[in-house]
Write a structure and sequence with these properties.
Elements (H helix, E strand, L loop, with lengths): L14 H13 L22 E5 L5 H8 L10 E5 L4 H8 L1 H5 L13 H14 L2 E2 L9 H10 L3 E4 L2 E4 L18 E6 L7 E7 H7 L5 E4 L2 E9 L4 E6 L4 E21 L4 E20 L5 E6 L5 E11 L2 H5 L5 H23 L6 E6 L6 E4 L5 E4 L17 E6 L7 H7 L1 H14 L13 H4 L3 H13 L2
Parallel strand pairs: 1-2, 6-10
Antiparallel strand pairs: 3-5, 4-5, 6-7, 8-9, 9-10, 11-12, 12-13, 12-14, 14-18, 15-18, 16-17
Helix pairs in contact: 9-11, 9-13, 11-13
The chain binds zinc ion.
Length: about 475
């Protein structure tokens, strides 16, 4: 069979390319289409008979949608899902009932999140002026309208607020992120011919295009010469490197207010508002294919501070001390457990892994757990020099899973409600995993979480469940 490759581009297919694919499929000259998840934007693929999905798409809805690309015109069709080694993929293939028995319609958004509400108010005001005394959401509308007036977005005439900005408000609204600021990536390979090759959202910029990072666009590697936060620009040049970079971040969470609490068997489960301080401290160079660590570099970027909502639970230190592991092994076990909880929570919420984040520390923010340069897990205090000794007898370890967006978008209260189910699935996933001492499908790669992380995580989960 001849293989013919056709490629699309981000944002749709060229009309003649589309016709070529459609005609090719009908005449059977094109036997298959290799595509990203963007296939179908205006293209007739009714003749496809089988769909092969490389990796779980992340939600039940997307899986059905991608499986449904085959068999639209023919009687029978086949859909194959090839699982990767991530915990999410492994859980799905180990528990097919989870996939087949659940309704895909499920979406979380918190309409009272101030930033989301402001976007909605702007979009609404663009359509029709707001009148004094009108209601929209639960917040004090007049205060928000006044704020937008001061910002020059709205203009007040008598008892009405009219749209006065030049832009179209919905352009700024992203379905995936709240912060509208972006960093542009400028290719400065040729002097005098600088061109913009990509835009990265503000939050991702710190890890994706920090100075000295390797950034990839359309399979071309670029070396980041400088990330200029003031100009919101990253200057890059083309390069061929045998490695990619992986940013190392520390995250410290402090509880501001607990909205609700429930005692678990041995632990306290809560959800509420938290302050999350994160800082990119360096990066690792990782060799392609072998994943060898080729070295480190420092990154000097400001801390990011965010208030959001979180779900967390706290395990008393004396209960952990009763387990037959030393403190280092306990910390590794906690990190491994948090890894699998994070992946399973993303699945439970039908969210992307990056929509929520995880941290281990204590509730006051005095202590937190992070990786050191050798990728070992350590405990430390903010501002302190790296403490080499992991310790769990200074604080009661708390596992945080928090909404990765300012103000929160409603994930954490759902996780709080489903705490028991989440703990049970993590235990089931880790137990059922055939690996010996940890892998990316359960508690994370052994080199990152340590050789005893798997059994320690299981012991801690057993402690939490009280059995
Ligand atoms: Zn495993």
């Amino acid at each position: 069979m001849d293989t013919q490759f056709v490629t699309g581009y981000r944002g749709g297919y060229l009309p003649n390319l589309r016709r070529q694919i459609e005609a090719g499929l009908r005449s059977r000259e094109v036997m298959g289409v290799v595509t990203t998840n963007a296939l179908e934007l205006g293209i007739d693929i009714g003749d496809l008979e089988a769909a092969i999905l490389c990796g779980y798409p992340g939600s039940i809805a997307s899986t059905w949608q991608q499986a449904g690309r085959a068999g639209r015109r023919t009687g029978q069709s086949l859909a194959l899902l090839i699982a990767r080694s991530s915990p999410l993929d492994q859980f799905i293939v180990e528990n097919p009932d989870y996939f087949f028995s659940r309704s895909p319609e499920f979406c979380r958004v918190n309409p009272d999140n101030l930033l989301i509400l402001l976007h909605h108010i702007k979009s609404a005001a663009f359509e029709l002026p707001f009148e004094k005394g009108e209601r929209f959401g639960g917040e004090n509308l007049e205060e928000l309208l006044d704020y937008l007036e001061r910002k020059g977005v709205l203009h007040r005439v008598g008892a009405r607020w009219h749209w006065s900005a030049e832009s179209y408000p919905a352009d700024e609204v992203s379905l995936r992120s709240i912060n509208p600021e972006n960093v542009v990536v400028v290719d400065a390979t040729e002097a005098g011919n600088h061109r913009v090759i990509a835009e990265v959202d503000w939050d991702s910029a710190f890890t994706a295009v920090h100075t000295d990072a390797i950034y990839m666009v359309e399979s071309q590697q670029y070396y980041v010469d400088k990330l200029d936060l003031e100009r919101k620009t990253a200057y890059v040049h083309k390069v061929e490197a045998e490695y990619y970079t992986d940013a190392m971040t520390y995250t410290n969470v402090r509880v501001i207010d607990a909205f609700a609490k429930k005692p678990g068997k041995e632990i306290l489960v809560e959800h509420g508002e938290v302050q999350v301080v994160s800082k990119v401290v360096g990066y690792k160079k990782i060799k392609f294919y072998t994943s060898e660590n080729l070295g480190y570099g420092d990154v000097n970027l400001p801390e990011k501070d965010m208030h959001t909502t979180s779900y967390w639970f706290t395990i008393p230190r004396d209960r952990l001390a009763g387990l037959s592991y030393n403190q280092e092994e306990i910390i590794d076990g906690l990190a491994g457990m948090a890894y699998s909880l994070h992946h399973l929570a993303a699945m439970m919420l039908m969210a992307d892994l990056h929509d929520i984040d995880r941290a281990i520390g204590d509730k006051s923010g005095e202590w937190f757990v992070r990786k050191d340069r050798n990728w070992r897990t350590i405990t430390t205090s903010p501002g302190a020099e790296e403490s080499a000794v992991p310790t769990t007898d200074a604080f009661d370890p708390t596992i945080f899973l928090f909404d990765a967006y300012p103000g929160g978008i409603g994930f954490s209260d759902l996780l709080f409600e489903r705490h028991e189910a989440l703990i049970a699935s993590a235990r089931q996933l880790i137990r059922a995993c055939p690996c010996k001492c940890g892998c990316p499908s359960c508690v994370g790669p052994t080199l990152e979480v340590g050789p005893t992380a798997k059994e320690a995580a299981l012991a801690i989960l057993g402690l939490i469940q009280g059995k």
